[in-house]
Amino acid sequence: MAKQLLGKEVTAALNEKIKAQVAELESRGVKPTLGIIRVGERPDDVSYERGATKRCETLGVAYEKFLLPADVTQEELMATLDKANKDDNIHGILIFRPLPKHLDEAAVIKALKPEKDVDGITDGSMVGVFAGTKQGFPPCTPQACMEILDHYGIDCTGKKAVVVGRSLVVGKPAAMMLLKKNATVTVCHTRTVDMPSVVKEAEIVIVAAGRAGVVDGSYLCAGQTVIDVGINVNEEGKLCGDVKFDEAEPVVDAITPVPGGVGSVTTSVLVGHVVEAAARTLQ
Predict the structure, then answer these.
(1) Which structural domains are found in the chain, ordered by start?
(2) Burial class (CB in 10 A: 0-12, 13-18, 19+), 154
(3) Which of 237, 92, 269 has the alpha carbon at shortest distance from 173?
(4) According to DSSP H, which parts of 60-189 are helical?
């Protein structure tokens, strides 16, 4: 039976660290502040916003909301972003995506200052991830995966790691972050030949395929640590991951549950980025 890598334990440790950083910044006259730009009322955006603001309140981080109607013009949205970019009291900016189809999302992302890109969506942040520099911030989800590995003492050095998925949101940055931890990394995708045998050779597996239950028992073996990034709704209306948990859990050494795994860590990572962005203004 696998050890469950619970997100709540990782979050608790991160939160204590963040609280201490906030106290230090406040003693130096800086109040870490997140700017939230939301267009329209998409239920998933509103839900994530609620979780983010609640976490901010818990950790002593301020926030300012810029709520725009779904039919907002490109000019109005860009003006709002420009205002947040130029406000020295706002240290990080979260822009909810996807934006309505009439808006040029690429132009919005390009206009966001990398030093305020706490969600890791700009080219500048990607450069930071791939070059290993302090430019921008990594996307929150792959960093949450790394936080879980660190918290549970899973050393990546010299280990074979496989990432299932090659998106810029999770797969590619996760691969780069594993390389930074001295793992030997393989990235699998829809064109990978005999994916089960490739995944089976890994000691650490991060699954971000975006499809419920795509990794089943045939992909897995004893001794593996599995980080399941997927959040899907199954036929019964229940949340499930990209890994078939009931087939994986009896076989592997450790696995993140869904829900209760990676997703629960990402909000603390986001708030941590805001605090780090505030700290960088003092350097």
Answers:
(1) 29-114 (3.40.50.10860), 140-263 (3.40.50.720)
(2) middle
(3) 269
(4) 74-86, 105-111, 123-131, 140-151, 171-180
pLDDT tens-digit readout, 215-268? 999 999 999 999 999 999 888 888 999 999 999 999 999 999 999 999 989 999
124 has binding-site annotation: no
CA distances from 159 to 154, 168, 174, 184, 198 (A): 10, 23, 15, 6, 14
Give the phi and the psi of residue 51 in degrees, each rounded to 5.
Answer: -65, -40
For residue 148, the model assigns a pLDDT of: 98
Amino acid at 251: V
Angle CA 263–269–275, to nearest 5:
155
Residues 6 or more apart in contact with residue 194 via CB below 8 angstroms: none
Output the pTM of the full model: 0.95
166 is in an annotated binding site: yes
Helix (H) or strand (E) holding 39, with range, is strand 33-39
Question: Cα(43)–Cα(232) distance, rounded to whole angstroms?
Answer: 16
The answer on whether 47 is annotated among ligand-binding residues is: no
User: Do the beta carbons of residue 205 and residue 160 sit within 8 Å?
Assistant: no
167 labelled binding-site residue: yes
- Read off the amino acid at residue 232: N
